[in-house]
Design goal:
Structural class of chain B: mainly beta
Number of strands of chain B: 11
Helix content of chain B: under 10%
Distance between the termini of chain B: 37 Å
Shape of chain A: globular
Oligomer: heterodimer
Largest interface: A-B, 23 and 28 residues
Largest sheet of chain B: 7 strands, mixed
Number of strands of chain A: 12
Order of helices and strands of chain A: EEEEEEEEEEEE
Radius of gyration of chain A: 14 Å
């Protein structure tokens, strides 16, 4: 079945460090790929998305490129801030007839220290 | 533009009781999905409603049921509550014929079963 595997956390970085959170997927069909962020005590917010191979999603300095050849969608940011501290979820959705639920990874907790 | 709203925010129930959670989708969305997020884990798909019918279900027992109303809002009902049902319950809305199949999440309802 469809699934997402993402880098285990927690990840602790100093402010202005480079961030990479790895995500790989397994899917039959052509998934759309997403990164969601969850701040403490809140629901999930869509951070960025990519709908086809080689697409690059970007938002708030975060980027991820849909790599079909490596079935990956790694999240990167060049310079993290304390306010980026949150849990990040990689997810996929494959549109099929009457079937388009979203599958999530286990989440990676990021802590950024000043 | 109102996003996805959920009520109540928090709920405490006793084992064996029944609970109803409510969700209003983002304006213009017609599909509602429910997810269970246990502490420290990624969201797990419970079911999805479209055109007032459950059209897809995850690996959850029949104690979990739902409903969608003509205005697209939705309810999640859980009967015979178990301690293991304690979790954050997330509602997500989407557009059936949307391009990227992304889902917008509400803030969640935190259910505690004692």
């Amino acid at each position: 079945g469809d699934s997402v595997t993402q880098m285990e956390g927690p990840v602790t970085l100093s402010e202005e460090a480079f961030l990479t959170i790895n995500c790989t997927y397994t899917a039959t069909g052509y998934p759309s790929l997403f990164w969601y962020v969850q701040y403490p005590g809140e629901g999930l917010q869509l951070l960025l998305k990519a709908t086809k191979a080689d697409d690059k999603g970007s938002n708030k300095g975060f980027e991820a490129t849909y790599r079909k050849e490596t079935t990956s969608f790694h999240l990167e940011k060049g310079s993290v801030q304390v306010s980026d501290s949150a849990v990040y979820f990689c997810a996929l959705s494959v549109q099929r007839y009457n079937n388009n639920d979203m599958r999530f990874g286990a989440g990676t907790r990021l802590t950024v220290k000043p | 533009d109102a996003g996805v709203t959920q009520s109540p925010t928090h709920l405490i129930k006793t084992r064996g009781q029944q609970v109803t959670l409510r969700c209003s989708p983002k304006s213009g969305h017609d599909t509602v999905s429910w997810y269970q997020q246990a502490l420290g884990q990624g969201p797990q798909f419970i079911f999805q409603y479209y055109e007032e019918e459950e059209r897809q279900r995850g690996n959850f027992p029949d104690r979990f049921s739902g409903h969608q109303f003509p205005n697209y809002s939705s309810e999640l009902n859980v009967n015979a509550l178990l301690l293991g049902d304690s979790a954050l319950y997330l509602c997500a809305s989407s557009l059936e014929h949307g391009y990227s199949y992304e889902q917008y999440f509400g803030p969640g309802t935190r259910l505690t079963v004692t």
